[in-house]
Amino acid sequence: MLRIRQLKLPVQHTEQDLKNKIIKTLRIRETDLIRFEIVKRSLDARRKRLEYVYMIDAEVKREQIILRRNSDQVSKTVRVLYQFPRSGKEKLSGRPVIIGTGPAGLFCGLMLARAGYAPILLERGQCAKERVRTVEKFWKLGVLDVQSNVQFGEGGAGTFSDGKLNTLVKDPAGRNQKVLKLFVEAGAPEEILYEKNPHLGTDMLVGIVSHIREEIKRLGGEVRFGCQVTDLKLEAGGVRGVFYRDRNAADSGVGFLETGQVVLAIGHSARDTFHMLKSHQIPMQTKAFAVGVRIEHPQEMMNQNQYGRDYPAGLPAAAYKVTRKTGSGRGVYSFCMCPGGYVVNASSENHALAVNGMSYHLRDGHNANSAMVVTVTPEDYEGTDVLAGVEFQRKLERAAYSLGGGKIPVQTFEDFCQDIPSRVLGEIEPCIKGRYILSNVREIFPQELSMALEEGIKGCEALIPGFAGNDVVLSGVESRTSSPVRIVRNEMFESRIAGLYPCGEGAGYAGGITSAAMDGLKIAEAIAKKYAPWYDNS
């Protein structure tokens, strides 16, 4: 197999144009090309010269001859194929229990189910379709379900996001491509396998995560919704089971599952679970994260900035990524950018308010939004408690709730700089899911953070003209960028408590849908290497 790099074509090319370019680049006859596959495709909009840039793997006749006569643009390649490990020999004391059905939990569960381990997944929230109805009711009426919301429920927080699938995680084992292939098997479009920045969107994710759940069940696993894990049974340095509350049960709803393998795929907002782990002295560490606002601009402004004023039809909604460093040394950067998306009320606790961003697959909303956030570290928190970062988040979220009376506080950037409440909006109409109110968003933050946000946003004007415009809309507070803690695990992926496997973004080992799903694969591999399948022991 030969790999061709930096193969460039105009954005409005055909599949035959691509094939012809491959033949010309390799300097071969059409009959010498057996087949080809797109490995990666990116859109190059630098200098407004719009081109697709491809990386191609091609199978050809007379490979060695062709390789010798071509340039450095062509090389021989061997694909890394993901391999799930052979099963271990130890007998399971009970079926593995996975807490949470975000990407980490679902993909861990899927791989274990395929290998015969019959996992049981416990999720405090609802299945995806019911969850969508609950969340939409909250956005319309302001009635929050603290167990099933934007943060909790099937698919995790990523279900109500842009659905980005790119990751910077180094991947010598091929887990990234395996995750993308599993998404395609569950109904995602095949282009996610090669697009540089693939995404799915909330509307597509709902069906995909439902498909994965049904596949887990078909293979012998269980998925139980409305089941919140409240405690662990620990004995002799190991886990022996989990206690949970089933809000669908007719009786008290208290249940217990005996197991020696518990996967903590709990998500970054499971604050009560963090407190429960702390009560058992499970080793955890504080970690840095970021807080800030959602910022909205017209999507057309972003398109013209990236593609030029007279860009051709059919191009994807333009994305951006900006970063600045303030005079005080604070890092300010865009995060979770949603082209053609919406700001959403992402609260999960009463009397506390957090926002996030989401897009549908078509990304056809009027505005672009992203989080503009400031890095905060344990030095910013009050006290040295391992959950001080959680309390830092809560303090900001309660301030946001109080400021807006439960509605999302919204402000123009001009008023933010002047530290006055907005009374009217300018030309940019917010695209928001949930009720909002004009306020002084700046009041949410300590002065040092609000000053850093102002300086950082103004600094981005040099990168994207109009970025710091007077009418630009800010919403607060963006506080759930990542987990404020890391649950310590060893080289076998276990906590100090044997059989307890911290996993995914909530445990501090991932930063998005794909990396969380990849971490889920790692945990499934660790369990499989040590234990024999459930059906071999039952």
Describe the structure.
A hairpin with a 2-residue loop joins strand 8 (227-235) and strand 9. The strands form six sheets. The chain has a seven-stranded mixed β-sheet with strand order 14-15-18-13-22-19-21. A five-stranded parallel β-sheet has the order 7-6-5-11-24, covered by helices on one side. The protein is of the alpha/beta class and 538 residues long. The mean pLDDT is 95. The chain has three domains: 2-76, 2-Layer Sandwich (Alpha-Beta Plaits), CATH 3.30.70; 97-285 and 485-537, FAD/NAD(P)-binding domain (3-Layer(bba) Sandwich), CATH 3.50.50.60; 288-478, no CATH class. The two termini are 45 Å apart. The protein is built from 13 helices and 24 strands.
Short description:
The chain is built from 13 helices and 24 strands. The chain has 538 residues and is of the alpha/beta class.
Task: Output the keywords.
single chain, 538 residues, alpha/beta, Alpha-Beta Plaits, FAD/NAD(P)-binding domain, 3 domains, 7-stranded mixed beta sheet, 5-stranded parallel beta sheet, 13 helices, globular
